[in-house]
Design a protein that fits this description.
heterodimer; A: alpha+beta; five-stranded mixed beta sheet; five-stranded antiparallel beta sheet; B: alpha+beta; four-stranded antiparallel beta sheet; 54% helix; globular
């Protein structure tokens, strides 16, 4: 009996002590910075290598969850949507030799990737879809990034309830991955309004939040610091890892 | 009393490396379980599949409506309000949360923080585990705890002894055949499984080593393996603590802190 009480109390105490101690430590900035050091290690070890697995058409998920900010509803986006995004041009600027506004027709003309890949959400679910689009590297090459350029920052149409604009970023090395694309079509159809129309990023080697929807402008930059909260993305500014390969 | 203990014979049982890695492993394991449950809460279901597939769902912990928690295992639903599904939100209230706030790090819902903890302590666990294995291999300690073919015949007699169906345990070294079975399972099955299944959840690593999620039955299946291995390791932990409790808590704790184990009633009992 004594033994059972000891056993039960030790294990519950160990488990129950974790949460309050952990929660308290979690609020300590130095401790949090120490935890964050694992991200740099993960990025160094895992990096961006290899190719994401390709799937067959029969593997495509029947119900791909929609798990993002709300579909943009500002008048600018709605006007573009009303005309089927015929008047949309993707801006590529910042630390580039040749800032560009690439019209939709040109993007369609540049389409060179057709891949069925798995999308892994940071929450834990996975879904498979077919994505057709343009290799991001090709779009960036049009604008010719400058020598000092290190990042591609994706500014999006969507905003949250506090009017914070969604944005994401990749290093130019990650951006050069052959499966990193600007997708124009999902499962054989133009990307739907609630799934990021007309252009969304697809980064199959990282978690879903990197694959920004509703991309309107790509800014090439030497640093992520001056943008948004300085962490390189909407979710990153809220504590998620910038390196989302894990 | 203190004088008496001093006079009793002690043996040097655990090397500094063993003791250090034991407690580091324990610390990391607790942090990983608590932060892992936090991460699970963001998608409180497990599928035996590659992509998410409700038809291959093994476990889900839901809140079908305000104030109700339901746990479904292999299609069988059990009301678990207050325990799982609808639980303590870590902020003094109740909410739709799979695992309760008193079990998670942080106590309140925060996937971002849970991940930071998890990925930091995963390194602590792997490094302390590898140091322990390499150290024990070099010292030859692993021989004492790894189950070998000649131990196999002794497993049943040992089990019978524990069930009081046999008077004497079979002859064995520092650890008996059942303990060796447990340690071998933990070190060479569960620990590698929890590491490999965790790694298979990384889309970056999956691109690098595509066979990784594949051998586990897919990415969601890897999530399921990861959870199953965690539950099994918690089971080992429970048995481990109960054996410590029944064969001299203070003596065992001392030997795992200072290295010295006092010989006496439970001579040579390992846990």
């Amino acid at each position: 009996m004594k033994r059972k009480i000891f056993l039960a109390s030790t294990i519950s105490a160990a488990l129950a002590a974790c949460s309050p101690i952990g929660t308290k430590l979690n609020g300590n900035q130095h401790f949090h910075d120490a935890l964050d050091s694992a991200e740099r290690l993960d990025e160094r070890v895992l990096g961006t290598r290899g190719l994401a697995a390709l799937y067959r058409p029969q593997d495509i998920s029947a119900d791909f969850p929609i798990d993002s900010l709300d579909t943009p509803s500002d008048s600018g986006y709605e006007r573009l949507a009303a005309s089927g995004f015929r008047n949309f041009s993707l801006i590529v600027d910042g630390a580039v030799e040749a800032p560009a506004a690439i019209p939709m027709t040109q993007l369609v003309h540049m389409m060179n990737v057709d891949q069925i890949t798995r999308h892994d959400c940071v929450e834990g679910w996975s879904a498979v879809a077919q994505w057709q689009g343009v290799r991001l590297a090709d779009v960036l090459a049009l604008a010719r990034p400058k020598q000092n350029a290190r990042y591609a920052i994706f500014h999006c149409f969507d905003r949250d309830a506090n009017d914070s604009q969604y944005y994401e970023s990749l290093s130019l090395q990650q951006a050069a991955h052959p499966q990193t694309i600007l997708a124009l079509r999902q499962n054989g159809r133009p990307i739907a309004a609630d799934r990021g129309a007309p252009v969304r990023l697809k980064v199959p080697t990282q978690l879903g939040y990197k694959s920004a929807k509703w991309v309107k402008r790509i800014e090439v930059a030497a640093s992520l610091q001056p943008i948004g909260g300085g962490k390189g993305g909407y979710w990153e500014d809220q504590g998620y890892e910038w390196y989302a390969g894990i | 009393m203190i004088g008496m203990v001093r006079e009793q014979k002690t043996v040097y049982r655990h090397s500094l490396a063993t003791r250090l890695t034991h407690w580091l492993f324990f610390l990391a394991f607790m942090a990983l379980v608590s932060s892992g449950l936090q991460i699970f809460n963001a998608a409180p279901f497990l599928d035996a599949s590659d992509k998410t597939d409700i038809h291959r769902r093994v476990l889900s912990i839901d809140s079908p409506r305000e104030g109700a928690g339901v746990t479904t295992v292999f299609g069988a639903s059990i009301p678990t309000t207050g325990v799982l599904g609808w639980t303590d939100d870590g902020m003094g209230g109740q909410a739709a949360r799979a695992f309760p706030g008193w079990l998670t790090i942080p106590s309140y819902q925060s996937l971002a923080d849970g991940r930071r903890w998890h990925f930091f302590f995963a390194w602590v666990m792997v490094v302390s585990g590898v140091v322990y294995i390499v150290w024990s291999l070099l010292r030859g300690d692993l021989r004492e705890i790894v189950l070998r073919p000649r131990d196999a015949a002794k497993i049943l007699p040992m089990q019978l002894y524990y069930l009081r169906l046999r008077k004497e345990p079979p002859a064995h070294g520092k650890y008996n055949p059942l303990q060796k079975t447990a340690y071998t399972l933990v070190l060479f099955v569960l620990a590698p499984l929890i590491v490999v299944s965790g790694l298979a959840l990384s889309p970056g690593l999956d691109a690098w080593l595509p066979w990784l999620p594949h051998v586990l039955g897919g990415r969601q299946f890897a999530r399921l393996w990861h959870f199953v291995a965690m539950v099994a390791l918690l089971g080992f932990f429970a048995v481990h603590v109960s054996l410590v409790a029944s064969t001299g808590v203070i003596n065992h704790l001392r030997s795992m802190v200072t290295g010295r184990y006092r010989l006496g009633a439970h001579d040579g009992v390992g846990v």
